[in-house]
Amino acid sequence: MEIKELNITTFSEAKKEVEAVNASLPSINLMAEKSIFKTIKISKMSTTAANILKQEMLSKGGEAAVSANTVNCKDKTTDVVLMGTLRQFREVSKKMNGQPLGLPDLGKWLETMIAQEKKR
């Protein structure tokens, strides 16, 4: 048995590695989405929107770092650092489309980012 760490940074690299283990064809894209990790920063988001976003990210297995004053909306805005895989961001983007407070715009931004990543 040999073990090595892979530094996968593009979707094409992820697909190549998943294909190399002879994974089933229908699962290749799904698994490749799970191997690309992204960190995204959003500045000056309303704390109400940030609370919604954090809950959605957590429910999909991702993470969202927000100001300590976000949970009680003591501040009007917060910066947000999102951390997750392409798959998690894809799932969150779907949930943003039905939300208020500019979150559908974030959903569209995430969808565009994912589409661009899949071309790499």
Keywords:
5 helices, 3 strands, elongated, Ribosomal Protein S8, Chain: A, domain 1, three-stranded antiparallel sheet, alpha+beta
Please give a structural write-up.
Helix content is 50%, strand content 18%. Strands 1-3-2 form a three-stranded antiparallel β-sheet. It contains five helices and three strands, in the order ααβαββαα. With 120 residues, the protein is of the alpha+beta class. It has a domain at 37-118: Ribosomal Protein S8, Chain: A, domain 1. The longest helix has 16 residues, at 103-118. The two termini are 31 Å apart. The mean pLDDT is 96.
Structural category: alpha+beta
- Total beta strands: 3
Spatial strand sequence of the major β-sheet: 1-3-2
Which band does the percent of strand residues land in? Answer: 15-25%
CATH architecture of the domain at 37-118: 2-Layer Sandwich
